[in-house]
């Protein structure tokens, strides 16, 4: 069940947003970068739903 709900999100982040790899090193930095990518995805989705 989890696979069907989360996989499209990663697919959109990789293909549409062009995020393929992390550019920072270290666990805290990667977590922060991942958070920024998720925030960007959510804002993009929110704008699309608001139209």
Automatic annotation (TrEMBL):
Report the domain of life of the source organism.
Bacteria
Q: Residue limits of the Transposase DDE domain?
A: 1-47
| InterPro entries attached to this UniProt entry | Tnp_DDE_dom
Q: What name goes with this protein?
A: Transposase
């Amino acid at each position: 069940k989890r696979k069907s709900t989360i996989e499209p999100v990663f697919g959109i982040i990789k293909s549409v947003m062009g995020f393929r790899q992390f550019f920072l090193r270290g666990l805290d930095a990667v977590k922060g970068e991942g958070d920024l990518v998720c925030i960007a995805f959510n804002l993009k989705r929110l704008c699309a739903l608001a139209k």
